[in-house]
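The aim of this short unit is practical: by the end, you should be able to scan a pair of folded records and say something sensible about each. We start with the first protein, listed as its amino acid sequence and then its structure tokens.
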Amino acid sequence: MTILDESDQPIFDETGITGIADESDPATGPQRHRWVLKALSPLALGPNHEADLALKGRHLDQVEDAAGTLLTEMFPDTNAALLPDWERLLGLPDACAGEPATLAQRVAAVAAKWAERRQLSVPYLIDMAARLGFAVTISNRAARRYGQALLGTTYCGKGWANTITVHAPGVAVADRIYLECLFSRLRPAQVYLDFDYS
């Protein structure tokens, strides 16, 4: 774009051949920092320093663009370039879930792991199994205590005092390792696991 005078005629350079380019809108151009550096430089420097200003301006443009990219990379659900670092930080890929096939699945796994708040409740364990595609139910096996147990309930010895049974009917034999891995990782230290696939 050429700068025009009051009568809408182009203003030419010193030789009267080339119109002077309009650099009045630096905010959107690809060389916005070159324009700022040129505006801050003394007029006496002249055209000899144009290449230097262009180089420095290009570097400043790249730094600003990188800072803008960092704003999206700092959140787990919008990252791409820092995805390996997020996975390393969160211990992904999860050995229980296997290796995600696509980039979108990897980002979703990072976001889910970052938002995860561990709980020691049955609904939480059922929800975590559902995320891997398993429909399970969980029952507690308490040790029978004389004087407190109801007549007709199953007798469980002391070994069942801290045991939960995970009922997962219809789970294929090949997939059982993922389900057992998940519950082994999430279970409290004092809880024992029993799996029922029937």
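Turning to the second protein, read its sequence before its tokens, just as you did above.
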Amino acid sequence: MKRKKRLFVALGAIIIAALAFGAIYHFMFRRTYELHLPQADDLDRISLAQGETGKVILDNKKINEILNIIGGTQRTTKEESIQDAPVNVDGEIRVDFHFAEGGASTLFIYEKNGKYFIEQPYNGIYQMDEEEYLRLLAACQMEPSGSASNPLASDDSSEPFPDSRTPEDPSEPSLDFQMPDDSSVTKILHDGIEYHPYGLPKKADMSNQIGTVNGDAKHKVYTFRDFPMEEFIIEQYESGLMDNPMLFRAADCDAEPEDMYILENEQTTGEP
């Protein structure tokens, strides 16, 4: 009887030790994740979406500022992200980094239980302090989620952010557009026309695909509404991620379409 009792005690001790070791291993030796951010020089723009509104950052200094705030002092965490987007959070801001060579990477910034977080899907969930959160909102001209006003700055006439889908292509595109990579100003060239970024279109604004950029089949060009291509074109790089289109306007065109989120930045024209 005593032998059985000692056996049960020994088995209990082994089980407790195993559970304790597992807990220690989980909390002390689990993987450490590091926040990965692009270099500012590799980016064409940063787009932000909060609810039904969006904002695009083109200015290089502002892009650098945003990256520095988000990056903090080399953020690390042991909290893993296991989903495409956060759930049950407040004031979620989606941040997309659009690379100059095409494609994009995404992270989310949000508030939960009075704390502020950066979540990089399938990487990690990083905490930021309130001061950093407010500095980021100020840099992006956005307001805290708890504000009674529009979540974007009051002087920002933003339109609903476009989704990544494109209309069916009714015909085979044939025109070749060029986007030089040796210029400090984002622009598209075609047949003597120079186009500059003008605004963020919606899916309904995209008509027929008429060509590609630099011969890349994924880098597509569409017509805009009923406007002639000599005035406006829509550019979209289909990477399978956040494929946001951009509306370009011809340099000598002064047409101003209605219901359009317009970019206001010297990077669009090269002029202050």
